[in-house]
Structure formats: C-alpha cells, structure tokens
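ugh ok fine here u go
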Amino acid sequence: MQKLNTPAKVQDFLNTLEFNFEKPARRGGNGETLKSPLFTLRARKAHCMEGALLGAYILSLHGYKPLIMYIQSTKDDFDHVIAIFKKGGFYGALSKTNHAVLRYREPVYKSIRELVISYFHEYFLDNGKKTLRKYSCLLNLNIFGSKWVTEEGNLWYIDKKLDKMKHYDIAPKKVFKNLRKADKIEIKAGKLVEYKK
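structure:
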C-alpha cells in the first residue's frame, strides 16, 4: 500500500478487486457485509462502501484525510458511497462500482456539490429515470480512532453515522418532475458491468 501513493494509483488498485455481490445467507453466503479495510484486502472483493473505506484508508497513509460520503438516490435505486480527496485545492473521488459509470473523479471540482453533480446524468435506472437526489456531509473516519481499519466484524456503525449526517438536496424537488430520461444508447452503456453475478 505504500506504493499506492496517489489517488489514481489507489483507484487502479480498487479496480483490481472483484465486486462483492453479498450473497444472501439463505443461499450459502454471508449476507450483507461491511468489512474493514483489512478484511476487504483479505477477501479481495468489495462493494462500493467497502471500496470507499479501503480507498480512504490507503489515502490516509499518504497524508490525505480519510473522508467518505453518501450519494443518495430515490427509493427505487441504490445509494452509493465514495471516498473524497482534495488535491491542489480541488476535490476528487475514488469509487468502487461494478458499472462503467459512477467511477473515479479527477480532482478538478471546486466544491463537494460540484463533484456530486458530476454523477447526476450517469445515475439512472434501466427505464432511464435519473435518480440522484441528495448527498451527505463528509465523514472523517478519524473520529472512529483506528479500530475501523482492522475490525473483524461488520462496520454498521459507520453506515449508521453516515445515515444520521446532514444531507443536502441536489436541487429543489420541482426540478425533478420534468427530467429528460436517459436515452437508449445511454441505458445500453449503463448496463455494461465489469463482473457478472
């Protein structure tokens, strides 16, 4: 991890991890997980929040604050968690996703809102409905001490903390009433995935 000394290198490493599909216990799996960075490394697979935690931790080894945040969608879609970094006064993001979109963001954004907005047009359902609605404050993982890095159990307390943090609307609700849906080629591209279930 000492060699992963830039956000781009950390993102490249996160991309090498398989996607964690969280197989339900009734089907022989372990159910939902929220592994610490150590156990994510051991498993060599991660979903978005596990990837964000691991990415934030690796960045913290190189002088960055370990920051994560929620990107919140409508109830009929999945939320997303990303790790945030600041370089040269601008914000960027690390992201673990199975899809071709919702990935890494270069540090070119002046504000967190500006960065989040960059995900808006790529965040849609199979019917083309755009679903991104809110984003949370940044959560500095240093508030949990160092236990979150190597803890054996699931880190649901971090998930709960993110839920309770202040969330900001992307735009007033009336704006979302007349959004143009993603078109057929966008929907087709959105279905491109890196790992099959």
